Sequence to fold (378 residues):
Amino acid sequence: MSKTYRIACIPGDGIGPEVTRQARKALDVAANRFGFSLDWQDYPFGAAHYLRTGEIFPESALEEMGGCDALLLGAIGDPRVKPGELERGILLTLRFRFDQYVNLRPALSFPRVPLPVPLPEGRRLDAVVVRENTEDLYMGLGGRAEGGSLSFSVEARRAPYELKGELALWTTPPCPLAAQVAVSTRPGVERIARYACELAVRRGENRVTLVTKANAVPHLYGFFEDETARVAAQYPGLKLEKENVDACCYHLVRRPDAFGVLLCPNLFGDIVSDLLAGLSGGMGMAAGGNIGDGLSMFEPVHGSAPDIAGTGRANPLAAILSGELLLRHLGEHEAADVVGGAVTAYLEESDPEGLPFELGGTSPVERSGDEVASHIAG
Ligand code: NAD
Ligand code: IPM
Ligand code: MN
Fold:
């Protein structure tokens, strides 16, 4: 009997449903070719569902998803809803609840995709952001006050620990203020540093670049550096190169091909991954995975792109390549290779008009998805 995987799917907002449809099509064709099947569990969460029902993300759905083999997500966020409401309520809830501590974001050059920074002859972009995905400024701990006196409770649960506390801050004279707490812990840094080192070894590389900012934020990022250095010391073949995030952005723009594994705390990883998406040829080329010991979630780096939603101009390749990462996570490496190869074949063989708008062509999202699917079918 053929193997069946249960895959949860949240298409989400804006271009999310458009690109997710293409990724699903690609994965179904790949599954069919390699003799397994995907049992899709659809979830409607996102702006339309919220505006219609008032519901963001019920606990029952989270529990159900926990029983799935993986999750494919399009994008969350809509201009009709207060910024952060859905992003935190759905996307970050998933990352935290399932303790998806690795945000893996490869940045590659692809055939015939022009790079904004031309590389020296024979060089290609092959970097990967390993973003810590459960701590830092993202934990949602904080508040704001009009009256000059702010107090808030700190409460967060991650697989390795529970964090609790109270914080009180005030100004004299009283002025409206806001504060948000960034936290980094030894288990939190250790596990992501280990993942980055193991990945560098698997890639046959001899270094990891640690992207921090300990010169200005010494407590938080000094700690991140020290904890990472302890882990990296256990890998004698690896050199830990430290770069401040500002200088790292500068170097990335000038020589994007000079980087391999970039280990980043959560916020810097978010920023550096969009920079790398731009450097690799476009937001629609950048795939990602949120990986943990429980349910892992695969989603493109980009958001819901409300500026092009519904126009057919979305590039589905990032979502399809996120599907490739999903297949790898399931252990379906042959199918994953074929999905990746089909994206390359499509880029190589299409006439220029047949490429997505982002790459200078005029192919609507659906047609690009069909092209990739037909390459997968073989
Ligand atoms: P965005 O990534 O949605 O868009 C940035 C730019 O890239 C836009 O010009 C957009 O048109 C373009 N773009 C993005 N994806 C593309 C694709 N596949 N093909 C062609 N062009 C593409 O970032 P934003 O505008 O800052 O955010 C829009 C909304 O998405 C916000 O609500 C934001 O919070 C949310 N968001 C969600 C996620 C996620 O769900 N993972 C990620 C980022 C942003
Ligand atoms: C991303 C997004 C999210 C993040 C937002 C929407 C919360 O930008 O997945 O990169 O900051 O992680
Ligand atoms: Mn982002």
